[in-house]
């Protein structure tokens, strides 16, 4: 790899990392325009516990998916998502990024008896280069542990 190729490779890795970092920032700030902007128009999504990680991804429209995520997240008073340990691999116009996650979901004021929902696990993002930077056409959330999941929580991917 030439020096110029190495520089381009490093720039691509940073741009991939920046795209992925927009995910928790958009959710916690409830910036749904930013959230939608990191995805391709159609995305493949898998949200599951570790025992279900062999399930197939579900193909969804990104606008409807954004609406579904908005509905879930705004049902909490506040959320805080942490992503760490980004492992980025770039191969031409495609990339993957694995990052560990920890998320807290604070119950709304009208549910004082509901405990804080905590969960941890990892995300695996697949990205592709587009005319507008790196976009996510496929990603997985694998939950490896959680406490106090709300009993009435329903996640409809759209």
List keywords for this structure.
158 residues, alpha+beta, Nuclear Transport Factor 2, Chain: A, 6 strands, 28% helix
Short description:
By secondary structure, this protein is α+β, with helices and mostly antiparallel strands. Helix content is 28%, strand content 45%.
Q: Note the gap between the termini.
A: 43 Å
CATH class: Alpha Beta
Backbone CA Rg: 16 Å
User: What is the strand arrangement across the widest sheet?
Assistant: 2-1-6-5-4-3
Tally the structural domains: 1
In the CATH classification, which architecture applies?
Roll
Strand content: 35-45%
Order of helices and strands: HHEEHEEEE
Q: How many DSSP-defined strands? A: 6
Structure description:
With 158 residues, the chain is an alpha+beta fold. The protein has a single domain, classed as Roll (Nuclear Transport Factor 2, Chain: A). It has helices at residues 3-29, 32-37, 62-73, and strands spanning 39-49, 58-61, 78-91, 94-106, 117-130, 133-147. The protein has a 6-stranded mixed sheet with strand order 2-1-6-5-4-3. The longest helix has 27 residues, at 3-29. The mean pLDDT is 93.
């Amino acid at each position: 790899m030439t020096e110029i190729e190495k520089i381009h490779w490093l720039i691509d890795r940073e741009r991939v990392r920046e795209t992925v970092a927009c995910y928790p920032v958009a959710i916690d700030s409830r910036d749904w325009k930013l959230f939608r902007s990191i995805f391709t128009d159609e995305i493949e999504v898998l949200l599951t516990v570790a025992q279900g990680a062999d399930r197939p991804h579900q193909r969804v429209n990104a606008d409807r998916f954004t609406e579904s995520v908005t509905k879930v997240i705004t049902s909490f008073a506040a959320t805080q998502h942490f992503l760490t340990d980004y492992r980025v691999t770039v191969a031409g116009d495609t990339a993957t990024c694995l990052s560990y996650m920890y998320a807290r979901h604070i119950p709304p004021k009208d549910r004082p008896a509901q405990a804080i929902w905590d969960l941890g696990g990892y995300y695996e993002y697949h990205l592709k280069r587009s005319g507008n930077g790196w976009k996510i056409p496929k990603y997985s959330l694998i939950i490896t542990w959680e406490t106090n999941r709300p009993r009435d929580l329903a996640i409809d991917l759209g």
